């Protein structure tokens, strides 16, 4: 028969294990309290450099002041268009907030900041910097999303790939199930580094960010991916009912070069 001291020791061990597993689950993203935001800025023709200058020097310090975390910033070097906007004029950012209420407060404070208003007015003396309002999509990490990489140190720069599957609400759960049951593992197996997997809070899309050593490495990874993908998707389609027809819109796929001020490169 175990002594009271032995039972207490076992109990403490169980508690420590549960706490450790809970912490790991939070780090994996599934129950993280952070809310992410994808923002796509479409600069007026010839104005992307001017917009990046004010974004870096004026907006980012104010983001930090008002509780908006800058996660990633990149310019598009290859990929699809949004509403006819030339990819060469885009700045793509991923931000993080504590929750939606905090995001709303932060954006309200930022927009009302007198120093931002003054800097923006001065920068737009020769024309508007943005061709249209920024596209904003709030996102929640999936329960299989990896822990977010720490900010990059050094000068190593990878190429990133942002993929947005416009599933619609009816197709989102099935797409998440595909990735959770095997596709995410196949991506990693074939040399792609997952940064995060998200679902849009309006349930319109499944969004993920990958990193590659360079563009050639990305091509090689996707070519080898197909070998594993075909048997997986055939088996998946055989056991999981298809989403209703017509619910999915064309997907968005962009290769991004991180800016010199991006926290992750």
Share in helix = 40-55%
The oligomeric state is single chain
Strand arrangement across the biggest beta sheet: 1-3-2-8-5-7-6-4
Number of helices: 6
What is the H-and-E element order?
Answer: HEHEEHHEEHEEHE
Q: What is the mean pLDDT?
A: 87
List unreliable stretches of 5+ residues: 4-31
Termini separation comes to: 57 Å
When the domains are counted, the total is 1
Which secondary-structure class do the elements indicate? alpha+beta
Q: Per CATH, which architecture? A: 2-Layer Sandwich
Strand content: 15-25%
Radius of gyration: 21 Å
Number of strands: 8
What is the third-level CATH name, the topology? Alpha-Beta Plaits
Classified by CATH, the class is: Alpha Beta
Shape: globular
What can be said about the biggest beta sheet?
8 strands, antiparallel, barrel
Description:
This protein has six helices and eight strands; from the N terminus they run αβαββααββαββαβ. By secondary structure, it is of the alpha+beta class. It has one domain: Alpha-Beta Plaits (2-Layer Sandwich). The longest helix has 25 residues, at 4-28.
Write a concise keyword list for the protein shown above.
Alpha-Beta Plaits; alpha+beta; eight-stranded antiparallel barrel; single chain; 265 residues; 6 helices
Short summary of the structure?
The chain contains 6 helices and 8 strands. It has 265 residues and is α+β, with helices and mostly antiparallel strands.
In terms of topology, how is this protein built?
Blueprint: H1 4-28, E1 35-42, H2 48-65, E2 69-79, E3 90-97, H3 100-112, H4 114-123, E4 135-141, E5 159-165, H5 169-189, E6 193-200, E7 206-212, H6 215-239, E8 252-258
Antiparallel strand pairs: 1-3, 1-4, 2-3, 2-8, 4-6, 5-7, 5-8, 6-7
């Amino acid at each position: 028969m175990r002594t009271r001291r032995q039972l207490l020791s076992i109990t403490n061990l169980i508690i420590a294990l549960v706490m450790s597993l809970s912490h790991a689950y939070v780090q994996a993203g599934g129950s993280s309290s952070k809310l992410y935001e994808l923002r796509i800025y479409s600069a007026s023709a010839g104005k992307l450099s001017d917009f990046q200058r004010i974004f870096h020097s004026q907006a980012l310090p104010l983001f930090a002041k008002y509780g908006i975390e800058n996660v990633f910033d990149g310019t598009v070097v290859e990929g699809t268009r949004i509403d006819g906007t030339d990819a060469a004029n885009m700045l793509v950012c991923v931000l993080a907030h504590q929750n939606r209420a905090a995001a709303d407060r932060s954006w309200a404070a930022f927009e009302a900041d007198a120093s931002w208003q003054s800097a923006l007015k001065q920068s737009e003396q020769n024309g508007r910097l943005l061709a249209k309002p920024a596209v904003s999509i709030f996102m929640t990490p999936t329960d299989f999303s990896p822990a977010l990489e720490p900010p990059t140190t050094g000068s190593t720069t990878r190429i990133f790939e942002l993929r947005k599957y416009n599933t619609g609400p009816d197709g989102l759960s099935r797409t998440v199930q595909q990735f959770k049951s095997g596709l995410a593992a196949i991506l990693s197996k074939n040399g792609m580094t997952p940064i995060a997997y998200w679902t849009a809070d309006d349930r319109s899309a499944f969004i993920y960010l990958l990193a590659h050593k360079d563009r050639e490495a990305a091509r090689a990874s996707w070519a080898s991916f197909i070998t594993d993908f075909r048997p997986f998707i055939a088996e998946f389609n055989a056991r999981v009912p298809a989403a209703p027809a017509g619910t999915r819109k064309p997907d968005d796929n962009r290769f991004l070069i991180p800016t010199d001020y991006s926290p992750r490169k």
